[in-house]
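DM from R.C. (forwarded with permission)

"hey, sorry to bug you on a friday — could you get me a structure for this? deadline for the figure draft is monday and I only need the backbone to look sensible"
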Amino acid sequence: MHSVTAPVRTLGPGSTVHHDIVLRVHDAEPIDASAAPMLPIACALAVWSDAPVRVEGAVSSSIAAATGALLDELGARFGATRARVEVDVEPGDAVASGALSHARERAKPSDSEPRSVALFYTRGVDSASTLIALGSHVTALLGLDWVDPPYADDGQAEIWQGTQRAADERGLPLIRLSSNARQVLDPVQSWSHTHALVLIAMAQLVSPRFGEVVLSGAHRHDLAPRSFGNAPEVVSQWQTESLVMRAFDAADGRTAKTALVAHDEHARRHLLVCWEQPGDRNCGRCLKCLQSMSHAHAAGVMHQLHERFEQPLTPGAVESLVGSPVDAATLAVLRELRDDLDDDPLGRAWRRVIAAADTPRRQDAE
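My reply, with the result:
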C-alpha cells in the first residue's frame, strides 16, 4: 500500500486547525507523492470553512493553476469570500503575472496524444451507465473503499468483493483507493457536496498512470442544483500537465441511464444502489432503493431489474418516506422522477414525498 499525507491547516481568525488527512492506494501502482493530491481537499476546506487553508509542500504551476480555477468555481457557487489555498510553487516554476492562465493552457492535452482512461466505479446507475457508454475507451476502474471509521463495517468487505468481481468480469483492473478525508470534511459540509473534491484528489494521486479520469454526473442538466459539488463545471476545472478530469453523463437523466443499465446484462447483474443495508444487497426499502426502482418503473424496465432488490416496489413503501430528510442533491433527482412518472398511485406517493421535503426549504427561503 502507498499513501500520501501532507500538513494541512485551516487558518481561522485567532486559531489554526491542523488536519491529519491520508490518501491511499492499496497496491503497488506509481503515485503522485507530492502535495498536489491534497489541494482539491484543501479547496473544500477553504470554501466550506470560508477561511484560508495552508498545504505544506511545493507543486508545479499547472497544479497551482488548477487549484486556483477549482477554488474560484467553488467560491462563486457557495459564496465563500475569504476562501484561499496557500501552497508553494516549485522553484523555477513560479506562478506570477498571468502565469496561472498560461499554465492551464499548457496543461491542455493534445487531441493526438493517446491517454489511458480510468473511471470511478461504484456499480450504481450513474457509473455503470458511463461504463456502458464509454466501453473500450475505459482502461481501468477506480473504487473508493471505506476502511476508515465511522464508515467501515463488516458489510464493506462484501461490497468491495462484489465490485472486484464486476471488474474482473469486464476484464478491467480495479484500483482500490481509500481516505479518511470524510472525518475532516463531514463536520463542515455534506458528502453530496464534497465527494467530487475527494475523488479529484484521488485521481491526482494515481495520475502517474492515468492521463484522464472520468467522474459520472448525477443530475438531469436542467435540474442540477448549482450548489452540488459534482457539477461538470466544477470537475472540469482540474486540468494539469499530467491529468484531465472529465465529467460524463451516459444520458440526460437517471431514468434514461437506468434503461441503459437494465439492457446490459453485466450492469444489471452487478447493480448496487443501496448504502443503508450492510453487505452487497439492495434492500428495496430505503430511499435510494425505492428511487432506483421507480426510475426503472418509469423507464418500463422494472421487470429486468426486480431480482436485484429484496423487496418489491409499492406505493405504500414510497409513502412511508414522507417526512424523511432529503438533501438538495437527492431532491433534484426526485424532481426528475416526478416528471417521468404517471399520475398513478406510485407517482402520487412520490409527489407527496417531494412536497414534504420541499416545505422546509420554502420556509427557510422566506
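R.C.: lifesaver. The CA atoms of residues 142 and 175 lie 5 Å apart.
me: no worries. Residues 96-107, 362-366 have pLDDT under 50 and may be disordered.
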